[in-house]
């Protein structure tokens, strides 16, 4: 953009100079200046004309791709994962025991490789449906299997496509070694005749200026204790320079296995809700409809808010009004109690 403006400015001076030498008059010079300025303005508008619906980041093309939601393994043997840093929204929620899984929703970016992919739970399907996502998992609980087989949501599952669309990594052991590429997601969608448009409804976002004036308690570190064992816990550390939070699992940075890029977070919503174990395997029923208490953390500022389920989306509310997001990536941590969350 800087080079374009510099070039246009030089062009303007050249036109004015040539006009003076040729004696063509002030009116032609004024028209030339106006045309150049219009071109600069059009270019500026073109860069921010559209925004990705789930990040609010500007783009030059109108987003049209459907969201894709993938269940990603978070067992220590599955780390580091692939593709997490490219997700627009990530839910972190308990499966069995103290181990969480991620539901990563992709729309603005499409990483080459995603995984390890893990089995579905019914509440993950509900969350994916909130963004009308194509749902990707490898395996399912009995409840999730029934939902998927009913046609509730378009989906591709590794049970049916193990070794074809889903590939097993040789350097990890099952069930921590199933991966899928975005190319195979699109291939599978085409085979099943799933539509890959339109883009999901946009979230509400602050303007850049509004993002600079957030009110609340200042925090630098957020710790979420899912277990008495540190390997299963999550931390977010705020960087005042980047104004983003870097995520950690078990004290280690959460980063991409291929690119080594860290997971950086702009919006962190931590919600408290009822968890109930429903079978001998330790599977859970998790209430994601009733709403309740939550922490809303952006740019190193924390607010005590409430959460609501709005058409399948978990959103922050305050005094009856939904709260905007800072443009960027969002993580939503689902916990049994906010007492498991600490700040420093």
Automatic annotation (TrEMBL):
Name recorded for this polypeptide: Lipoprotein yerB
Domain named DUF3048: residues: 54-194, 224-332
Keyword tRNA processing: no
Keyword terms of this UniProt record: Signal
UniProt keyword annotation of 4Fe-4S present: no
Leader sequence segment: 1-22
Pfam family, one: DUF3048
């Amino acid at each position: 953009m800087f080079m374009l403006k510099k070039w246009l400015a030089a062009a303007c001076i050249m036109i004015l100079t040539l006009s003076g030498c040729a004696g063509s008059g002030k009116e032609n010079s004024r028209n030339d200046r106006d045309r150049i300025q219009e071109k600069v303005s059009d270019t500026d508008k073109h860069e921010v004309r559209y925004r990705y619906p789930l990040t609010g980041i500007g783009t030059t093309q109108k987003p049209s791709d459907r969201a894709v939601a993938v269940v990603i393994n978070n067992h220590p043997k599955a780390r580091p994962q692939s593709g997490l840093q490219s997700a627009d929204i990530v839910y972190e929620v308990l499966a069995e025991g103290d181990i969480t899984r991620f539901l990563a929703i992709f729309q603005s970016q499409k990483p080459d490789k995603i995984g390890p992919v893990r089995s579905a739970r019914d509440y993950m399907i509900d969350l994916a449906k909130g963004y009308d996502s194509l749902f990707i998992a490898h395996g399912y609980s009995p409840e999730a299997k029934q939902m998927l087989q009913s046609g509730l949501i378009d989906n591709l599952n590794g049970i049916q496509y193990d070794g074809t669309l889903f590939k097993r990594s040789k350097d990890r052991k099952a069930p921590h070694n199933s991966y899928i590429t975005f190319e195979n997601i699109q291939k599978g969608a085409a085979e099943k005749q799933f539509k890959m448009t339109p883009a999901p409804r946009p979230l509400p976002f602050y303007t850049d200026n509004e993002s600079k004036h957030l009110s609340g308690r200042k925090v630098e570190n957020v710790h979420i204790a899912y277990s008495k064992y540190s390997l299963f816990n999550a931390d977010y550390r705020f960087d005042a320079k980047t104004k983003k939070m870097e995520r950690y699992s078990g004290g280690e940075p959460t980063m991409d296995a291929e690119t080594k890029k860290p997971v950086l977070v702009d919006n962190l919503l931590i919600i408290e809700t009822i968890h109930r174990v429903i079978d001998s395997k330790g599977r859970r029923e998790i209430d994601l409809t009733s709403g309740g208490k939550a922490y809303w953390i952006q740019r190193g500022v924390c607010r005590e808010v409430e959460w609501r389920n709005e058409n399948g989306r978990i959103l922050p509310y305050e005094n009856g009004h939904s709260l905007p997001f800072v443009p960027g990536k969002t993580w939503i941590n689902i916990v049994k109690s906010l007492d498991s969350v600490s700040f420093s």
